Amino acid sequence: MKLATLRDGTRDGSLHLVSKNLQSAYCVASIAPTLQYAVEHWATVEPQLKKCYNLLNSGALSNIIAFTNCQLESPLPRTYQWADGSAYVNHIELVRKARGAEMPNSFWSEPLMYQGGGDSFLGPNDNIPLRDSTWGLDFEAEVAVITNDIDMNIKISAASESILLITLVNDVSLRNLIPAELAKGFGFFHSKPSTAFSPVAVTPDELGDAWDGAKLHLPLYSYLNGQLFGKPNAGTDMTFDFTQLITHAAKTRILTAGTIIGSGTVSNCDRSVGSSCIAEQRMLEKIAKGTITTPFLQVGDRVKIEMLDHEGKSIFGAIEQSVICHI
Amino acid sequence: MKLATLRDGTRDGSLHLVSKNLQSAYCVASIAPTLQYAVEHWATVEPQLKKCYNLLNSGALSNIIAFTNCQLESPLPRTYQWADGSAYVNHIELVRKARGAEMPNSFWSEPLMYQGGGDSFLGPNDNIPLRDSTWGLDFEAEVAVITNDIDMNIKISAASESILLITLVNDVSLRNLIPAELAKGFGFFHSKPSTAFSPVAVTPDELGDAWDGAKLHLPLYSYLNGQLFGKPNAGTDMTFDFTQLITHAAKTRILTAGTIIGSGTVSNCDRSVGSSCIAEQRMLEKIAKGTITTPFLQVGDRVKIEMLDHEGKSIFGAIEQSVICHI
User: Measured between CB atoms, which of B114, B189, B252 is closest to A193?
Assistant: First the structure.
């Protein structure tokens, strides 16, 4: 199934099923008014949604609307728990190398994860407001999962079953605020403003053999101002898979339905595939040439993040955002 | 007004008005089913609640229930945004001094704040589950505010008006997980499990002259196993007041209705008033005697956090929690 949330003036929007080909949307308010409601009542809601999804794809439903014209929220316009890992350790090692810092060996055995703020996500086509052009605005293309309720100390085997939906992420970052913020010791706050997610979130079965229960084995395409920026495979060089990220997150707490767990910036050791964020590209430039040439995002810049199936068709729809000046 | 959320099997509980003397509760489902709903519709809901509150206090309502028998959630059983400051810089300086670390001077001019997880708060009388007795479980007695919607880059003058409710906090911490977690650079995650809040949240007018629009000038009482542990005044030595904490939090993002902003552990320079967490007491012991004698919380230990008005009456009700073993 593919699920989207249409903007309707309320804080949680209106849940819609979207056809496999991303052409049509169908309001499922009678089954679940919002995605938060759906994940909280998944056992009863999922079979009803599935039945409806089959009818939508077979063309048997009336009252469908064209999906391309819709004003979209992120699938979950807000969430109670947004925890973002940094599972591509290759990416962390590279960033550290560029600034001459050693990476502790423990980074290969225990995930990095930060507590994100989930009260105000941007929609997949919303502009990114930038207050100060010196803050070093960057995109980060990631994959994320949306989970069911999770017990504290959940086992790896149960973690995979807790994954209800998969989505793409633009983890908007303010790079030049990060060093001073992390130096204070309390982690990210200012440097991680509102995040954006892909137009639809999909159930694991939509991904076929590209989803192995813990990783998504497909290239993640990022474009900057219409030019391909990177296409690393999200299933390659992922040091910690989603089941490991989930068990890590649940070490000292329960997690509740609607929790979003992010992969961190997708990055491959094979440099020819490019990068999923500007910071990594800049580090590669610094290492290779000693000078950085790619600037961070400025007002007017456009970012696109998308994933295609084996037939070249968009799975999640595209995150497409422009940077605007916030007064 | 005093507002509480009764446990009713749903995730957000059932909103009740509580009488000024904390004796009676009255279900206000017909006005606002949950506190999250109330803060999202404050302009219309608040006058109706106020009218009802006056009737409750005058004894004019029927269908009231005894508040002391109620099973309580925290006023907001979960929230989309829980950001906890560390506004009593004296406390930070002390903790650093004990471990021989310098504190940057910038800590006096810019608040420390961490992004908390808000999906699963403990109720004010819920047990604190502890998986591993070596994790160094600690309580932290704090004050917090619950806000209305807040624009990015809000001004100090508007920040005070955005404060709808005030509450007490037990910011449960796992002290022995903190050093390794902060050393990784991504801030708190494992070391800040589910937080608990006081039985009621109150509107600023309930606090009379003890609330100056930005600080709460009353002692905050903490008890460990029935013994007074500390009673620092929350209005004394608070380097950053709540309006400063709010503007800090809103530097790069909007904040939405139901946001909780915490003060951090309340701490006074006057050591005779004791401490609001065990870690501070341990640091004072180390500095004074060279050895630490007070252990962190173990299974069976009991914590109580409360604030009294000028007449010695409890304002928020008491957070009273016992530590239990989590298998």
Answer: B252
Quick one: DSSP state of residue B161?
Answer: H
**Amino acid symbol at A55:** L
Q: Which residue in chain A has the smallest CA separation from B114?
A: A186
Chain A contact set for B324 (CB, 8 A): none
Residue with tokens 């230990």: B301
Predicted interface score ipTM higher than 0.85: yes
Q: Are residues A179 and A279 in the same domain?
A: yes
pLDDT in tens, B113-151: 999 999 999 999 999 999 999 999 999 999 999 999 999
Distance from CA of B259 to the nearest CA of A (A): 8
> Tokens 């591993």 label which residue?
B132
Residue A44 belongs to some domain of the structure = yes
The total domain count for chain A is 2
- The pair of three-digit structure tokens given for residue A149, joined into one six-digit string: 């309720």
Averaged pLDDT of chain B: 96
pLDDT in tens, A64-91: 999 998 999 999 999 999 999 999 999 8
Domain that holds residue B262: 82-325
Torsional sign, CA A281, B253, B166, B156: positive
Would you say residue A76 lies in a domain?
Answer: no
**CA distance linking residue B140 with residue A92, whole number of Å:** 33
**Are both A167 and A209 inside the same structural domain?**
yes
- Mark which residues 190-249 of B lie under 8 Å from A by CB: 190-194, 249
CATH of the domain at B222: 3.90.850.10
Question: Secondary structure of chain B: what % helix, strand, coil (to 5)?
Answer: 25, 30, 45
Question: A203 CA to chain B: closest CA distance, Å?
Answer: 23
A246: left (phi over 0), alpha (psi -120 to 50) or beta: alpha
How does pLDDT run across A183-196, given as a tens digit for each residue? 898 999 999 999 99
SS (HEC) of A48-67: HHHHHHHHHHCCCCCCCEEH
DSSP state of A211: B
Considering only the beta carbons, identify the residue of A112, A188, A253 that sits closest to B184: A112
**H helices present in B59-139, as ranges:** 89-98
Question: Is A78 within 8 Å of B254 when comparing Cβ atoms?
Answer: no
> How far away is chain B from the Cα of A136, in angstroms, using its nearest Cα?
12
| 140-179 of B, contacting A, C-beta below 8 A | 152-153, 174, 177
**Which of A114, A152, A153 lies nearest to residue B187, judging by beta carbons?**
A114
Read off the pLDDT of each residue in A23-29 and give the average, rounded to a whole number: 98
